[in-house]
């Protein structure tokens, strides 16, 4: 079966438009050419996966490439939750607004720095934070992403035989400790 390049390009364009709409974007709203090309690339990989005439090896490679590129796809930015009015009475909210304005002026530079520098790994492109930088920073701090640390050495999981020998040695040490001291544990 032969297909023309025009027909394939038209189908690819339609798939890319659907993908853009699924991400909440308008086709004319893309800020850069790179984002448009990313949408087209992901749409092409999706079409390769769905194509029944492609081999399973090509389909699996296309799927893995699509998953890699998916995190870089543009998304429509949501409005910040902080900008919505609180349900508290007006006097409390006025006092809070004055305090927040002072804090926001001081923390604007640090928030931008944290947002750019924090590595959240697989959670970097989720919609959970709703654009709230404080939530994002707190999550990063709790998960250890704000420390800018990576592994400083190659860390590999031990194979089964090594794990068995380590576990056996630990059990032997534990049993020796129990029999020597005549206690039911290693504690006091």
From TrEMBL:
InterPro entries attached to this UniProt entry: SMAP, SMAP_dom
Domain annotation Small acidic protein-like: ranges: 125-187
Biased composition range(s): Basic and acidic residues: 79-91
Basic residues bias locations: 65-78
UniProt-annotated stretches for the region Disordered: 50-117
Pfam families named among the record's database cross-references: SMAP (PF15477)
Biased composition (Low complexity): 94-107
Origin superkingdom: Eukaryota
UniProt record similarity statement: Belongs to the SMAP family.
Name of this protein: Small acidic protein
């Amino acid at each position: 079966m032969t297909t023309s390049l025009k027909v394939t390009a038209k189908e690819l364009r339609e798939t890319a438009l659907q993908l853009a709409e699924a991400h909440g974007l308008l086709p004319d709203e893309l800020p850069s050419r790179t984002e448009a090309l990313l949408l087209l690339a992901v749409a092409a990989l999706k079409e390769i996966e769905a194509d029944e005439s492609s081999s399973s090896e090509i389909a699996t490679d296309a799927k893995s490439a699509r998953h890699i590129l998916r995190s870089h796809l543009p998304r429509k930015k949501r409005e910040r939750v902080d900008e919505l009015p609180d349900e508290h009475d007006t006097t409390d909210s006025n006092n809070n607004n004055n305090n927040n304005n002072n804090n926001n002026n001081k923390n604007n530079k640090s928030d931008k720095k944290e947002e750019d520098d924090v590595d959240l790994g697989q959670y970097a492109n989720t919609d959970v934070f709703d654009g709230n930088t404080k939530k994002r920073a707190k999550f990063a701090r709790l998960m250890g992403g704000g420390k800018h640390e990576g592994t400083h050495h190659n860390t590999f999981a031990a194979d089964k035989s090594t794990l068995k020998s380590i576990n056996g040695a630990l059990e032997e040490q534990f049993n020796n400790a129990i029999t020597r001291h005549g206690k039911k544990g290693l504690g006091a």
